[in-house]
Amino acid sequence: MQTPSVFHYSNLVSRDVESDSLLEDNKLANARYDTISHSQVESPFNVLSELRAVLKYSIPLVITFLMGVGNRVWDVWFLGNIGSKALAVTSLGHLFTTVAGLSIGSGILSAIDTLVAQAYTGARYPHTIGIIFQRGLIVMFIFAMLVAIVWINAESILVLMGQDPSLASMAQIYIIISIPYMFLCFTNTALRKFLQSIGEMEITMYLIFIQFPLNIASNYFFLVYLNLSFIGAAIHICFMSFLLLLLYILYLTLFTQIIQTYWPGLTKEAFHSWTEFLKLGVPGMLSVSTDWAFEVCALLAGVLGEISLAAQSVVISINNLLLMIPNALSTGMSVRLGHLLGANEPRKAKFCVTLSTCLATTVTILDSLLLYVYRKTIAYHFSTDPEVIEAIVQLLNIACLCHFVTGFGIVLSAALNALGKQFIVASLNLVSYYLIGLPFGLYLTRYHYWGLEVSYYFIMGSSDGNRVYLGNLPVNVSKSEIESVFKNYNPVEVTLKERFGFVEFDNKVDADDAIHDLHGTKVSGSRIVVERALGPRRRENREERSYRVVIKNLPPRTTWQDVKDFMRKAGRVVFADVLKDCDGEGVVEFAQYDDMKYALRELDDKKLNGQRVRLEEASGRRGRSSRSYRRSRSPRRSRSSRRSRSPRRSRSPRRSRSPRHSRSPRRSSRRYDDESVSRSQSSERSNSPRDLKVYDGEEPLDEEPTPVHRDSIDQGEIEERDD
Questions:
Q1: Which stretches make up the RRM domain (predicted)?
Q2: d(CA 61, CA 422)
């Protein structure tokens, strides 16, 4: 039986060894090499023997990959508990470095997987393997220097892509600090692939075991003890990559003979045959576009805001963690397949692919089920921000299906890569991800609020339905003005606070119509936001307390999230916002009186973003012995049985949406053709994803200025709404 047509390692070396003297020096090593390499494929051909061979490679890789990505999960966990700002900046920087460098380099180094695995059982001299490895390092170092130039200009690139300028500026700092990490990462990746290809899977596993607890300690030291935020995150990954490289060198030098056996020393042979190496490396780069496409989507999610970016980062981390199992199976299969092809065993090679595919399919089905069942638990462990938690929960509904399809494809891609068919994998990925999937996703995100924003539609669908949120209200707007705007939609109750409010309707249809028609309507010169209010109404007999602090002298570009993260040092923050009408001022409300007092005592005259801020207790606060407060509707807004609708708004119990209620884009501002009733002053509706905000629907506790962005949803309330 003929060996399948594959790209062979011998294309990359003009000579097996450099000289006769080198051949003489390696006779002893060659004898040992032949004994080890050929023993890898000399086994009976049956299911159990092949299963043992695949699992022998895969199990150490499963542990290695899970712990490696587990390190990344711990990174996200620490950042998520510091605050969404640090998580968003680090996520944006990490996504940029992945898309604009790390993914490309990892793909190019995939040539080592194919060439070293085949050379291990097919090459005559072991130094041939070392030459291939050395060539890969030289190519990657030159590539890394070019990538560093791009990273230095990351801020302008991110702003050009539509990222928030302040977020891009901070991400630039993270990216520049991470430049040494790129060189270290490429070196560690090349070492890992080299060791895997010669069947030494356990070495990396041992080193990751050592690194894992040190990674947690490093996170704590840089992010918690030194409180360096995203700068500490960048220093942390550089430090851990250097530590891993040091562990590799020490282990290979002190405990193995691998360097003596395979390393040829610096040789001019490593500077030859680059074209042949890149013929495998460049398609290999494109063949890993599965992960790359996910990172591109996550990078574009940053345009939609910090909440979207933070949620996407968590979901990608969890998805990548679970994908490590099929990744390990595919890598083990790839190594085994390369050994079989190098030893001219095509029949065993075919069976190896079939067996590995069945194993990977079973594992991904189980992973997808676990991802769906425990989606809430995952969300609560990775963020303390209620909006981020809800976005994670809903996004995981989609990720579990995506995980299954991706895991199945990983094994098949690895089989083609092992055969040297990277070009086929690259072509399929380019078509499926970049010509179809990614453009279609961007279209849905931009014009139909889908893409990542589909999670927000799931969230909005969990609300009560007949209550809407009003935002961007003029400072001095009156209740009568708002009632006149909504009068044709049968509002039951209007509740106004300074700069925002809520309107409750008799039914969901009226609320839907009001949102559609009145979002963007001008009221006293300001275009108001009309969105679905999320969450249950506060109980009307609920005792209210307000422990509010005014924060002054805020630095320019300070966001509400910066203020919330700063004030969290004192206790649980209920509300936080930066007042746009008052230059350099913000407002914060605490859940407890003692927390407010602690903030006034300990955080006053402390630095926020490099500038000292002043704190004052807001006037008009209801004290600890506040009276019970109960709102009552005016008689004309009562929902008693005596309330009646005008004839034009009456509906039968089985009312269905008529054509005049349709949401066609060509819908006229006149609701009914037979009546001269205009329902809005303007029905200009925003289609920008930036305008889509999610509100939890909780009302403030008094009439003082209260921010839109807040952290006031209890975990139990989120669970109730999700159910």
A1: 466-535, 547-620
A2: 22
Residue 72 above 70 pLDDT?
Answer: yes
Interior angle at CA 709, CA 707 and CA 711, nearest 5 = 110
Helix (H, G, I), strand (E, B) or coil at 164: coil
Bridge partners of 695?
Answer: 533
Comparing 35-49, 415-429, 650-664, the range with the smallest average pLDDT is 650-664
pLDDT of residue 177: 96
Average pLDDT over the chain, rounded to an integer: 71
- Can you tell me whether residue 504 is helix, strand or coil? strand
Q: Give the residue carrying structure tokens 């460049």.
A: 282
Condensed to tens digits (0 to 9), the pLDDT of residues 476-513 reads: 888 888 888 988 888 888 888 766 778 888 777 788 78
Token couple for 519? 């979002």
The answer to whether residues 114 and 280 touch, using CB atoms and an 8 Å cutoff, is yes
Q: Residue 289 above 80 pLDDT?
A: no
Written as one string, the DSSP assignment of 56-96 is HHHHHHHHHHHHHHHHHHHHHHHHHHH-HHHHHHHHHHHHH
pLDDT of residue 414: 78
Tokens 């890598």, residue located: 331
Question: Which one, of 106, 100, 102, 104, lies nearest residue 160 by Cα?
Answer: 100
The arithmetic mean of pLDDT across residues 570-580, rounded, is 76
- Amino acid occupying residue 385: D
- In the DSSP assignment, the letter for residue 523 is E
pTM score: 0.52
> Contact 1/340 with Cβ under 8 angstroms?
no
- Which residues lie closer than 8 Å to 714 by C-beta, 6 or more apart? none
Distance CA 326, CA 194 (A): 20
Rounded mean pLDDT, 575-599:
79
CATH 3.30.70.330 placement within the chain? 547-617
Report the CATH number of the 547-617 domain: 3.30.70.330
Half-sphere exposure of 54 (CA within 13 A, CB side): 30
Q: Tokens for 261?
A: 């056996």
